[in-house]
Design goal:
The complex is a heterodimer. Chain A is of the alpha/beta class. Chain A has ten helices and ten strands. The chains are: A alpha/beta, B alpha/beta. Chain A: Belongs to the ABC transporter superfamily.
């Protein structure tokens, strides 16, 4: 089995004078095996995602990135981590800056991660596809602009948006298209992992199918691994290979999704599965 | 005779766009109808139009007649608000999606449930207190005395929605309109609230208009569904017919989408 890209090792997290939010959480995200973090409100799903993103630090235990403890104080490692791990949020209406054109929104990771800087230049070992075109520090400003533009167009294209979307503003797009913009922004720097917090729950069901299809395509064609927080078992069963079920800050069950959904061993998992509303089949 | 008859209902926005167009359907006593559609389909506006609660500036045309037992049949469209006040709560009442906004945050839950009981059944004192607690017990809230003393923020989302249901049922309405009543709830809580709603409605012989975007949810609650898109009715029929043999392309798209996620759950081998 290949080495995990991201790993939580006996992670605890809590606030003073309150019950712990996370207690003894351990799991590994391996390349090519998209992972679902499933649970109900207050289970600690979003907190866990914030820890995986380095937005908060565990009280005890560790988050590991490529086998080393996540340390975002080191600039080089922070840039490396941000290039490798990107995120998409639940609400496509609040996660995009309404005053910026789509081209600027999508290009943001390229700018903040220093396309053309020494760090990006050094990082040629993982070059593939778009990532091969890392531009050195000596390249002129216009060339850099052209390169950013090229990558933005490619990212928009791979999420199924037309090139002219780049010159428009977020309010001109529907919820599903906005989520595509958010995904384009996340994949523009060719990350290996996409952390997605309920990425489709704010969308209509027909749109939901299209976005899940898009994520599945990105995992197939770009070797992207998705870590998805969701309460919707149908959605995660469509996309993910592995699952961890969280209840009140603890992982009560985890493993291959076929096994966990097919023969759940924990009562809470069984209750979640039994609660999922189902369509009448009509076929007997 | 139908309890609710909607005929040629249209709703226009202040700038003249048609948000609901020429919608007609009816619900008989004890019947349950699901109104299903995606965002912008006009399903919630339809619910508001039935209650005469459309936002200012919207114009309504067509007819909405509520004919509840023991009350004169009333045309809602164009009716003065004094007449509508007599209908609301008794002929028809609504449970909304978000119980936190449906409840007054500054008032204890018990007082909010007591209010319609006091107004409609004329109860006072100990009898009112008794009726409040029994209303909370009926929606299967354990420890109703504690819930009655609590403020809305002190109880969970599922408990709040149960309180909202208790308030809606307090006046024994003939028609309950439930607008996405479980969308804000966790799945296991949703399952409980849905079965509670179904049982209460069956036990009281009430009619139900259930509004949702989720085919699987509506399938468990109502017998018939009406599919809406862009303010118009696309197709209607029994839940089973719609789900197994949709006639319109839009309905097929909707069913196929829901089916994708549903079948992903089936594919999982034991």
């Amino acid at each position: 089995m290949s080495d995990p890209i991201l790993e939580a090792r006996d992670v605890h997290f809590g606030y003073r004078h309150a019950a712990p939010v996370l207690a003894g959480v351990s799991f590994a995200v391996r390349p090519g095996r998209s992972m679902a973090l499933v649970g109900e409100s207050g289970a600690g799903k979003t907190t866990l995602l914030r820890l995986l993103l380095g937005l908060a630090r565990p009280g005890s235990g560790a988050i590991l990135f490529d086998g080393r403890e996540l340390d975002l104080r080191d600039r080089a490692r922070r840039l490396e981590f941000r290039r490798g791990v990107q995120t998409v949020f639940q609400d496509p209406y609040s996660s995009l800056d309404p005053r910026q054109r789509v081209s600027r929104i999508v290009a943001e990771p390229l700018r903040s991660l220093g396309l053309g800087s020494a760090v990006a230049d050094r990082d040629t070992s993982r070059s593939s596809g778009l990532g091969s075109a890392i531009v050195g520090p000596d390249v002129s400003r216009t060339d850099r602009q052209a390169e950013i533009r090229r990558r933005v167009t490619a990212a928009l294209d791979s999420v199924g948006l037309p090139a002219d979307a780049a010159d428009r503003y977020p309010h001109e797009f529907s919820g599903g298209q906005r989520q595509r913009i958010a995904i384009a922004r996340a994949i523009v720097c060719e990350p290996r992992v996409l952390l997605a917090d309920e990425p489709v729950s704010a969308l209509d069901v027909t749109t939901r199918v299209r976005i899940v299809d898009l994520l599945a395509e990105l995992t197939r064609e770009r070797g992207l691994t998705v870590v998805m927080v969701s309460h919707d078992l149908g959605v995660v069963a469509t996309l993910c290979e592995d699952i961890a079920v969280l209840e009140r800050g603890r992982i009560v069950e985890r493993g291959a999704i076929d096994t966990v959904l097919g023969s759940p061993s924990h009562p809470y998992t069984r209750r979640l599965i039994a609660s999922a509303p189902r369509l009448p089949s009509g076929r007997s | 005779m139908s309890l609710l008859t909607v005929n040629g209902l249209s709703v226009h926005s202040p700038d003249g766009r048609a948000l609901v167009r020429d919608l007609s359907f009816s619900i008989g006593p004890g019947e349950r109808l699901g109104l299903i559609g995606e965002s912008g389909s006009g399903k919630s506006l339809t619910a508001l139009a039935i209650m005469g609660l459309l936002p200012a500036g919207m114009t309504v045309s067509g007819s909405v007649v509520l004919d509840a037992p023991g009350m004169p049949a009333t045309e809602v469209v164009g009716a003065p608000s004094r007449r509508l006040d007599r209908l609301r709560g008794r002929a028809a009442t609504t449970v909304f999606q978000e119980p936190l906004t449906a409840l007054d945050p500054l008032m204890r839950v018990g007082r909010q449930v007591a209010e319609p009981l006091r107004r409609w059944r004329g109860l006072r004192g100990a009898a009112l207190r008794e009726a409040t607690l029994s209303a909370l017990t009926e929606v299967r809230l354990s420890d109703p005395e504690r819930i009655a003393r609590a403020y809305p923020h002190e109880i969970s989302g599922g408990q709040r929605q149960r309180v909202a249901i208790a308030m809606a049922l307090a006046c024994e309405p003939a028609l309950l309109i439930a607008d996405e009543p479980t969308t804000a709830l966790d799945v296991s809580v949703q399952a409980d609230v849905l079965s509670l709603l179904a049982n209460l409605i069956a036990a009281r012989g009430m009619s139900l208009l259930f509004i949702t975007h989720d085919l699987a949810v509506v399938a468990g609650v109502t017998d018939r569904v009406l599919v809406m898109r862009d303010g118009t009715a696309v197709e209607s029929g029994t839940v089973l017919d719609i789900v197994t043999a949709p006639r319109e392309p839009y309905t097929r798209d909707l069913v196929d989408s829901a089916r994708t996620f549903d079948e992903a759950l089936n594919r999982r081998k034991p």
